[in-house]
Amino acid sequence: MNTILGLYNYWIVIILMMAGLYILIARYNLIKKIIGLSVFQTSIFYLYITMGKVDGGTAPILLDEPASYSNPLVHVLILTAIVVGVATTAVALALIVRIYESYDTIEEDEIKAIEMQEQDS
Amino acid sequence: MIATQLPALQIIIPLFAAPIIVLVRRSELAWIIAVVANLMCVLVAWKLLGLVNEQGIIRYSLGGWAAPTGIEYYVDSVNAPLLLLVAAISAIVLLYAYHSVKKSVDSNKHYLFYAAWMLCLSGLLGMLITGDAFNVFVFLEISSLSTYMLIAFGSDRRALTASFRYLVLGSIGASFILIGIGFLYAATGSLNMLDLAQRIPDASSERAILVAFSFISIGLMIKSAIFPLHAWLANAYHHAPITVTAFLAGTATKVSLYVFLRFLFSVFGTQYNFEYLLFNVILLPAAVLGFLIMSVVAVFQTDLRRMLAYSSVAQIGYIVAGISLATQAGLTAGYVHIINHAMIKTALFMSVGCIIYRLGHAHRPSLDNLIQTMPLTCAAFIISGLSLIGVPLTVGFVSKFTLIGAAMEKGWWMMAALVLVSSVLAIIYIGRVADVMLFRKQRLPNPIPQGRNEAPLSMLVPMYGLIFMSLYLGVYGSKTLAVASEAATQLLGGFR
User: Which of A106, B15, B196, B273 is most buried, judging by how many CB atoms fall within 10 Å of its CB?
Assistant: First the structure.
């Protein structure tokens, strides 16, 4: 019982991670792929935050009496990773706009068909 | 005073050049700023290499925060030569880029192109110089994001999809590295590489270390395009502007391989069973299959860029084969081939760039008798091609000779033989191009205009500079071998 409830957060991480990767692999729509990628990256943020949590810990601020606090370093790391994730999504969406402009579609199978045709001619 | 700040300057110069270029906007000025910043980087890297040779390892605490609390830059005999290599290759290709970029990139986007180039350079140099595991991830993403942008500058619309596919795969790779670093932090409580190396043997959970190790390995294998995780490379190299391809071929995958080496040997150390599992069961077959299959694939490509891209994956196979031996000789062979292949492949892509500049394509069957119109470019291609094959007196020979020697030393005769087989395949694919260039009479209804039509001097001079450098290092092979051997000793000895 403890392995399921006690590690509740980690189960969520695994589910999110697999769902993200699945969307990324199984969907042909480029926007959906990026959604999958974001979900995948978010699950990693969740993993980091979970690692830093201490049971009953407070925020890492100076108090009059000593208290246990959660590890602040992982939060800082994840702030950086969130910025990176947002930048990746932004670049990806910009690319999708350009792809849509030049191919008139954002379905990967249709793009592949167009590219195959181009290669033949 | 300034000498103590060199490790920080290495990153700061290109990082600051990028926004300045964006503010300036004029394309000529943007190029000049990029070149000046890049030459300063070369100078800094040169000084750092000198300092490392003189006084050994340099540890630099960023912002005065001592490690392991703060981020540390760590320069030793493993990464100092690579810093110089990456900065120098970027500088040479940038000097060469001016005309090529002018022709292939929209003129109102030049400043963005050079800004992305500078960001990419600082990301790559950062991955090399940093001694902090999380910092590696940050710099990796800086270089990757700017690489996606650079690839998308390609004139063909397929550049966009190539860039997108690389973005998806590259992000998965980077995320895997991030997961791995997370597990490492959870298991040891540190992010500093030196600190990690000391704490990993005492970590309470070996399983967490194994998971971290696996994630980081897979992530870095994607980023360094080790067969069979190379799917992104061929399209990206084919459709990117040729200058970008020349730059990336010599730097991006090599830097990822360096990080891989760093994690494998310095951070995790070789005392784990699973390392041997990785070396013998995963890396070695991947390397051997990589250099065989990819060489065969390269033979059947009609576009020179695509052919060279597959050949790049094959050459990475040689490097990985050297690494997977996990001996002093093997690591020396792998490391020396990182340097040598960077020079060879960049020169090859530069000569293809000259062909594209004049003809507008690099379609092998239409290069009939190109030697008549572009003798210098063809000569450059063939000299570098011979080096790729591994003809004596070239750098390629130095690498192959060391690699085969290392394989035999460990008694892996089969691998030594397969390296030779793959060299024969390289003779075939380079030979097919040389044959068309040199001997074939004009078959098609006059596809190439007659008369001398050489690429501009500003492209030829940097290209020949690189080729002479590689010939010099081929004749005096012991120079690079000494550097590589010292790096291998440092890697096998762990952090000191």
Answer: B196
Q: Has residue A25 been placed in a domain? A: yes
Query: Can you give the residue range of the structural domain that contains A34?
Result: 2-53+71-120
Cβ separation B160–A95 shorter than 8 A: yes
Q: B91-120, pLDDT tens digit by residue?
A: 999 999 988 888 888 888 899 999 999 999
**Partner B, chain A 17-56, Cβ-Cβ below 8 Å:** 21, 24, 30, 33, 37, 40-41, 44, 47-48, 51
Entry pTM: 0.93
CATH of the domain at A11: 1.10.287.3510
Position A16 confidence tier, pLDDT thresholds 50, 70, 90: very high
- A59 in a domain, yes or no? no
B176 vs A contacts (CB less than 8 Å): none
Sign of CA dihedral B248, B78, B417, B470: positive
Please give, rounded to a whole number of angstroms, the shortest distance from the CA of A119 to a CA of chain B.
Answer: 11
Instruction: Provide the ipTM.
Output: 0.93
Instruction: Give the per-residue pLDDT at B201.
Output: 82
